[in-house]
Amino acid sequence: MRRHLMPALGYGAFFAMMLALSGCVADTLALAPQSPDAQWQPGDGDEAVDMRRQAEASGALALTAPTVDESRLYSLPQLIDLAQRSNPDTRVAWEQARQAALAVGMAEATYLPVITANVIGGSNENSAELPIPIGGNAYFNSNINGVVPFMALQWLAFDFGGRSAVVEGAKQLSLAANYQFNATHQRLIFEVTSAFHDYNAARAHSRAAGQALANSRTVYDAIKARRERGLATSVDLAQAEQIVAQEELRVVQARGSEQDTYQALLGAVGLSPMTKLKIEDTKDRRLPRASSMPTETMIEIALANRPDIFAGYAALEASRQGVKKAKADFMPKIGVFGTLSTYETQLDAAGLPAVENSGLNGNIMFGATIPLYDAGMRDANLKQAQSRVEAAERNFDQLKDAAAREIVVASNALTTAIQANDSAVKLRQAAYKTYDSALESYQNGVGTVSALATAQNGLLDARLAEGDAREAAFTAAANLAFVLGTSTSAIPAGTPR
């Protein structure tokens, strides 16, 4: 019997094709940088050039940020609200939570049967040598054409809790993603609050530096007047000029730091660095109150409000479901299988009329899969799942301990920050008295320029310390709210609830 098939490739052609394919793989090295000591540059025909042109034409390189009212004075709650709507971190966390929720649906879908529709068709040509030639034909040629559409059913009916463990684990991971989403919002609130107060501290530095510059110019004018009357030396005047130049430098540095903290605030909110915003000043805001030393009961209540704690607990529960799934793999799986098909065939044989045939077939079967031997794979999977539970339990314990420590430290930090602010206020008041006395003494001819410069520097340091201490108190209050898990709304630190 001979069978007419499509022409096959010879061995030579086959090896030639393999060499060509291997050559194509080797040629892809041209896509990489050609040397380790020089930057990569795309060529005219590279996809990188087309990609860049496409990105530029589509506007993908343009800065994306929500429109803001540049004439509006933004308070901290308004900045937080703007950040929650525009910061990309919240969008990423939201999409991750949605993906985890969809994973639950995918796991639940394993309870339902899988039905597929298929079509198979083809042609088969045969040629058989006849023992006796008929009509001058030495071979009997036949051709069979057919199409078989069919539907297949696969349904896992029972698996001893394997799927339920997967579904429950997916639900726990979805809860963890939701809690992480809340944690992202709380962290964002704290970051915006911290950046807001850093910016206000930098503005306080600028005001203090500007006042110090004004004071130094006042001193310079006084010394210059005394010099013109012959009551001051050229050294005194030179020292005064040096002090003015020094304060001018401090003003420039303070304004640069103010711009840096402003950009950090824009970044925390999720706005373009080109955005121009008017930010509310905190110089007239009431300071937060000191917190009492947290007790064990207070810490337990605080932990119940922290989304990261519940995210860790949900991850622990998901790992426990993994153990159940690994144990279920040792048990049989019972399923239902079925097919429903129709067929149409046509037989054409030389010298014979065409024969057509069609029909309908259907069957349903029950089966069981019993695991017998897998070289220890299931044992390894079970031990691995149990190890994940142990690791998750230790991680959860560490998370609780770290959270409790954060609460105690944050409470102490707030108390210290408020006390430091009180001390800074007293220091500034004393420094003002010292400066006024030094200036008056010099004007009356009984003081020195050095003493006056020392008093002026002390006043500047005191004003800077007061500005830092004030904003540090606000930041400490925001940090305490964050570690307590209460940063769930745009409520500024120091505002009574």
Question: What this model shows, in words?
Answer:
By secondary structure, this protein is α+β, with helices and mostly antiparallel strands. It has two domains: 73-111 and 159-331 and 375-483, Outer membrane efflux proteins (OEP) (Up-down Bundle); 113-158 and 333-370, Single Sheet (Outer membrane efflux proteins (OEP)), CATH 2.20.200. The chain contains ten helices and six strands. It has helices at residues 11-27, 47-58, 76-86, 88-108, 162-228, 234-269, 296-303, 307-328, 377-443, 449-483; strands spanning 73-74, 114-134, 137-158, 278-279, 333-349, 355-369. Strands 2-3-5-6 form a four-stranded antiparallel β-sheet, with no helix packed on it. A two-stranded parallel ribbon has the order 1-4. Helix 4 (88-108) packs antiparallel against helix 5 (162-228) and helix 5 (162-228) runs antiparallel to helix 6 (234-269). The longest helix is centred in the middle third of the chain and has 67 residues, at 162-228. The chain starts with 10 loop residues before the first helix and ends in a 14-residue tail after the last helix. Residues 1-9 and 489-497 have low confidence and may be disordered.
Strand content: 15-25%
What does the radius of gyration come to?
40 Å
CATH hierarchy class name of the largest domain: Mainly Alpha
- Secondary-structure content class: alpha+beta
How is the largest sheet built, in terms of strand order? 2-3-5-6
CATH superfamily of the largest domain: Outer membrane efflux proteins (OEP)
- pLDDT averaged over residues: 83
Q: In the CATH hierarchy, what is the architecture of the largest domain at level 2?
A: Up-down Bundle
Largest sheet: 4 strands, antiparallel
Helical fraction: 55-70%
In terms of per-residue confidence, which ranges show pLDDT below 50 for 5 or more consecutive residues? 1-9, 489-497
- Rough outline: elongated
The domain tally reads 2
User: Order of helices and strands, N to C?
Assistant: HHEHHEEHHEHHEEHH
Report how far the terminal alpha carbons are from each other: 95 Å
Number-wise, the strands total: 6
Report the total helices. Answer: 10
